[in-house]
Amino acid sequence: MPPLPETLLAWLDEGTDQGVYVLSRGKLEYANAAFQAVLDEDALDLAEFVGRSRILPEHGEASARQPTGDEKAPLRLPSQPVRLAARDGAVHRLVAQEWLIRSRDGALIVGCISPPTDTADSDHALLRVALYDALTGLPNRSLLEDRLFQAIARVRRNGKLAALLYADLDGFKPVNDRHGHQAGDLVLQTVSGRMLACVRETDTVARIGGDEFAIVLEQPEHVSQVRLVAKKLIASVGEPIELPSGAAVCVSCSIGISLCPTNGMNLRALMNAADQAMYLSKNQGSGQFRVSAESAVAVEPLEWMDEHEAGSIGVAEIDRQHEELIAMANRLHHAIDNSESYAVQSSLLDHLISFAQFHFASEEALMDRYDDPGAEAHKRQHAQLIAQVLFFRHALSNSDSQMILSALRPWLIRHIRSCDRELGIFLQAQGVR
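== Bacteriohemerythrin ==
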């Protein structure tokens, strides 16, 4: 089984109380802390659970080592009792919800153990890591971009206002240096709570980097209201924070603000304007904010993703396929945004998955032809990406369309910007254009 990303491991071990596990070839390949607390204490229960046969839908009983059925999407296996757990004198029944996922590295069973009433939550447990910051619980950059896109769409429809605020903490590094990373984590969590208290429930506060935050304000009445929120954020963040050691620390924040439609009507224009305004405010000193003076560019078609986000890798065949993948993602977004039928949405996602597999195969053929030294790692990431998008496909069947969109952007863009860009550099050095 390919190694799991460190951010995913950290969240699975600390960010959820559900038991999450991965089985491969009849062996327990991964189990988070919550799973170990339930089953690792009893070796017999663990051996029985891992070794039992799984019931595959429409195919009767079969071993997890010999999966059969639809190769396109993961199979959702029937819920099954795990064991009776006696806690505080009471008996609680646990259930396991599992999915059979096929990848180039073989079949995997990914599962969640939880009380029966938490079955719906288990459907979201593995997907949530793609959308939320593990430390603060705030939306991450992926979900922020989706919320901002929705805010822009509403501005286009109703002609009102939206605002994006970039906030960068001042004085955070000395906290880590003097008091340790646990103190730094506490500061970030405290700041997150204070920022949430300064905005409405309809607004979005996200953590987009180490000590960087972003806020989307939905339909403020006037620019003066945006300025008032910025002042409240600066005042609240600047209040002393008491550490468990008894010491008190202070941080402040610098804020850059962009306005829709004043500074633009697309993601990149608003993000760039807010980022530039934030750095100008930092140059004025800590605890300042600045509204961007950038002029709005001509109104562009509202595309959820465009090829400029990923950039060209300089190999015509691969660049054309990237453009097609992004076009497919935009068509899927349009279908979900316009509440088209599940049949239409699932067909578009199936088409995207099929083309992604073709695209990965095309890249791998080029890696093999030119003996790319990074081929093994790149192919492993392809396998992981296909497994992830198949999980997105499962989520779509459970009406999590918007979550799929938010997870699909980094799935595609980050891979192109990292592995594919490195492949492009290698292939161009071999004379491939």
